[in-house]
Amino acid sequence: xxxxxxxxxxxxxxxxxxxxxxxxxxxxxxxxxxxxxxxxxxxxxxxxxxxxxxxxxxxxxxxxxxxxxxxxxxxxxxxxxxxxxxxxxxxxxxxxxxxxxxxxxxxxxxxxxxxxxxxxxxxxxxxxxxxxxxxxxxxxxxxxxxxxxxxxxxxxxxxxxxxxxxxxxxxxxxxxxxxxxxxxxxxxxxxxxxxxxxxxxxxxxxxxxxxxxxxxxxxxxxxxxxxxx
Length: 229
Prior knowledge:
mainly beta, Jelly Rolls, 16-stranded mixed sheet, 3 helices, globular
């Protein structure tokens, strides 16, 4: 019986060595464009590269240039300059804590990971393509699908429809809500690989303006033509 106990103990120890707990807290990287600065939980600072993994607790940031991280599951994270987030991972659950700047999250639909966003007491799950931006106010830009945002422990949800821009207050209220007519001004702060184009159907849907002929004075000349009004 003692021999069996020792046998099982050795097997159990081998499993722990082969599959350490830390392996569940790593995120593998496929590609990086430009510098991503890392501060890990041990206080060590370094640049992220394709040979290293993102570990749970890592603080990722950019300086004067935008950057891109593409994960192994083809999820793309686009940083504008001077942006940062913290990463927490437990098995297939990955939590991004947005800190500052502007970051575009483009989650691969086929990914087996469960991604979640936390930002200033707000929580967002089941994301696809979304931009978080924080300067004076917190702004969230949703591209693909209808989403629900939760504030702290409040059971009431904030509905975020596709192709919508929300400006959120610090107390869980919507300060401003607008529909998106074009995407360039929102994605121009990122690298070219992060540009999201608005579908033509959406352009036509939101651009219900009357086309009128008119003239304006420009550089001392009268310029005429059709314009939307």
